[in-house]
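During the first year of the project, the team set up a workflow for recording each protein of interest as an amino acid sequence followed immediately by a discrete structure-token representation. This format lets reviewers and collaborators read both layers of information side by side without switching files. As required by the reporting guidelines, we include two representative entries from the current panel. The first entry is reproduced here exactly as it appears in our internal archive.
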Amino acid sequence: MSTPDASAAPSPDARPPGAQIDWGVAAGIGRRIARPGPLTTRYTLEAARSELASAAVAAEAPVREVTGLADGLPVPTASVLDRGQWIDAAARSMSSMLGGGQPGSPGGLNLAGRLGGVQAGGLLALLSGAILGQYDPFSPDPRTGDDGVLMLVTPNIIAVERSLKVVPSDFRLWVCLHEVTHRVQFSANPWLRGYMLDNIALISADNGESGGEMVARISAALKSEKPREKGVLGAMQLLQTPEQYDAFTRLMMLGTLLEGHADHVMDAVGPGHVPTVERIRAAFDQRRKRPQNPLQKLLRSLIGMDAKLAQYIRGKAFTDEVVATVGMARFNAIWTGPDTMPLPEEIDEPRRWIDRVL
């Protein structure tokens, strides 16, 4: 039996799924098919961009005061983008996290990589109309080169504020309060970025499992009486190995904490800085709950938007209860490291986290 050459490059099929996607193709396709933003004059658009940039800076001080995080750190600016610019940034971020052909790089991957890029581009185009703001810890700030950039998507914010019939300047600051909280979370706790990357690597790594082994594992799981999650989470639980699903669960718990904490901070800061915050919160919550047609429901399920909504609700309830019980200063023990992250059984029973950690 011959011994394989250890220096030989792995076959394309052995690479993680993200490395088999040409993200340059994804960005190009996404920009081409993304829907245009709402009709607006150049003056209105530029005024909105300027106000969002200012609001992102103005939000930093009250967020730091309420959270007790990032005191004394520099206040970075935000990237205020249109939908096409967000698609480019998202493709670069995904390539950084998962590997693959970089947007704008010459050459690219093989046919399978380009086909993967077409599929990813369709998803990016869909998401480009839904994202109001996003803190991306994986992309460098274009101004400073430091890890992490806050992005605000102007046409989407204009579209939603018009739909909700809210005061634009108040809504823009309200959105910034949420996204700046994410920036503060990561700025004050740099370990979060590595923690996310480590778990993403576990999820996306080739586990060496053959197709037959995967089918046997899924069949056994379906026949067992072990409880499974519903919807997308249940599908992930079936498709992933136990090690991958554990990493996926850790990321879900982190996401639930980050989103819930940001919503808690928005509500704590809002009354003192956003005059119409109650109207905005009521209108936005109603928008989250409004019924969708069957196609919208399917798309929301496939891209995990319903799971993300659950993250906001469960994470905020967890943060509200812990802060009400022990105060924000003691709550901040949660940012110590991976061992102080909430466990799945603690998210809905915050007292268990308090008893374990504090």
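The second entry, processed by the same pipeline in the following quarter, appears below.
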Amino acid sequence: MNRATPRLRALAALPFVLATVAYLLVLALWYDRLPDPLATHFGPDGGGRADGFTGLAAYALVSTGLLLAAAVGWNLFVRRTALWGAWATAGFTGGLLVLILRDNLDAADAAEVVSPLANLTVAAAVAAVLAVAGLALTRLVPREEPAPGPGAPDGPRLPLGPSEVAGWSRSTGSRTLTVLAVLALAAVPATLLLAPWPEAWLALLGLVVGVPGLALARVRVTVDRRGLTVRPALAPRPRVRVPLDEVTGAGVRDVDPVTEFGGWGYRVWPQRTGVILRSGEALVVRRDGGREFAVTVSDARTAAALLNTLVERRGRL
């Protein structure tokens, strides 16, 4: 999967920076003409009359934080073909925030403020204009060549004699996941003891998060004549196994948990799965049909070399 280049990330962040600057400039120019608190939520009844209010300073902070958080989110997940989406999101969000300020302008009582439904149309129009701009800027981002898949002809090999047998095993883990899992499990008895009975079911959430988290916090990765096996370091189950018969090749590459797998832990995507506990070096196994399985582990090159050798030996049998 292609990663976002620095230029792509900069172009994805740019519309949010522009929207934030424009929004703060309008806020500064209109600040003395705005009520405090502002009308910030409008109900469907009464022609869009205000039914929710926020302090002026708090609204400024929350709005700015919203734009910056959206910028971060798009930077984590943006792809060349979706750059227009970042610009559209910035246009719609920034436009709506400015329109809310306009609706509050010179209002003596925020409770009387009305936000017409047409505001959504105006914000959508701004989003469409910026989407076109983002689409045009896509040409500034060069097309990325896909990363070479595991099992390429120049993949690593481990020299083994015809009668030699070899195996490889290493454990890997995540301190962050361990801490989070322990905290989630520790919250279970506290919830059962302190929470009122109707809310005590929330203890189940601690179990749902804590048990799988602790199981994946440290795993053992093994490569041998049976293929690849990943299991919890402290228990034989649950485990993930890629049989040698399904392996077409193996390689090593650095992975980014968020942009490539959407997070940490056991990840499942249409054409790739993985046990992703950190960023960096990972053993990537290509399976029949082009699917990939990745696991982040040190000394992944040795594991890949052994798998490639075992696959070649199997083909000669």
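For the second entry, the following points were noted during internal review. The first strand starts at residue 38 and ends at 42. The radius of gyration is 27 Å. Both points are flagged for discussion at the upcoming steering committee meeting.
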